[in-house]
Amino acid sequence: MTLSAICNLWPNRAVSLVPQFTVASRRPAQRPRGEHAITPIAELSFSLAGAGCNLRTNSAALAETLRQSTVSWQGSTLCAFNVEATSDDLSPVGPAHFRGMHHVVVASFGVANVFVFDLRRQVVTAKVSQTLANDPDFWPRVLLPIAAGVFASTIGLLPLHSACLSRNGDGVLIAGESGAGKSTLAVALAQRAFDYISDDWTYCTSAQGVLTAHGTAARIKLLPDAARHFPSLAAHQTHISMNGELAYEVHANETFGASLRQHSRPRMLVFFRRTAEPAARFTQLAGSEARLYMERSVERLPPQLAEAAAVRSRLMDDVAALPCWSFECGGPPDHIAQRLETFFEDRRKDWIA
User: Fold this and answer.
1) Tens-digit pLDDT profile for residues 86-136
2) Which fold has domain 158-351?
3) DSSP annotation string for 304-322
4) Could you give phi then psi for residue 75, rounded to 5 degrees?
5) How many CB atoms lie within 10 A of CB 75?
6) Where in the chain are the domains?
7) For every residue of 29-54, which 3-state class applies, written as one string?
8) What Cα–Cα distance (Å) separates residue 285 from each residue in 188, 269, 271, 320?
9) What is the pTM of this model?
């Protein structure tokens, strides 16, 4: 789909309680109320990595999918999802394509499925095929993690390239370069009675001086060699993930018996590096090193989102103020997890004292 065709699906800028879609029109936004509007048959509020979102859609199947795969939100919401499903369109779902300019990001999944993310207004406007609306896997596995990443900084979330696990509400953030083994370590810790929150991207918020780490309920992604360490993967198939890697993508609770948790209070940030030697080495790091890591891993925001950039910067300061450690260790995942668990519990005695 060309960019001009994508721009034909654009959220109406008129202030209205009814979500509207202007299709193939360049007239001013002042329209009679209801023109090009969704006739919603379902509306619900849900948590997106700790931020309240509202969905309005004419697809009962989509609403039910989000109701089952997300946590209900009771407070005020920060962003809106307006999704119109075309009832007579059964087009297949295509590969993902993204375009961005200033505060707008456009994602398409084939010619019939287009999402426009307006970061300034915190609104997603989408028109999708019935095929996509009825797909219970696409929304929690693909769309919601994308939305969390795209919207994060504009709805008070700091995306952190890390896994997160917790014990009794005390969390540990495990950062590292791609391929370092964060996901396999996360599974090994979950099998040692840690609560599983996330394995790749964690979203941090701060309220009244309390830092909280959130997950998105996304599936855990493991490379094929993880089957050597986790026999339960034998019941699953690998497939091509969104970043082009061949991987397992499984539910941590169903596949590994992990206890799931939506959020925790992070108590330390650990930078993990796998080595050839089984000996564990922990080295305390300055917060400035953590800050540099975060600055390298987040997207640069356009000038139109200066306020969001300032909020994100303050969140980086909060995370960098955590005790930060370098953790080097080799061997199988359970061995590495046991070393980190011992270190975590020794530090935890001070937190609960």
Assistant:
1) 877 788 888 889 998 889 999 999 989 999 999 999 999 999 999 999 999
2) Rossmann fold (3.40.50)
3) GGHHHHHHHHHHHHHHHTS
4) -90, -165
5) 8
6) 3-155, 158-351
7) CCCCCCCCECCCCEEEEEEECCEEEE
8) 25, 10, 9, 10
9) 0.84
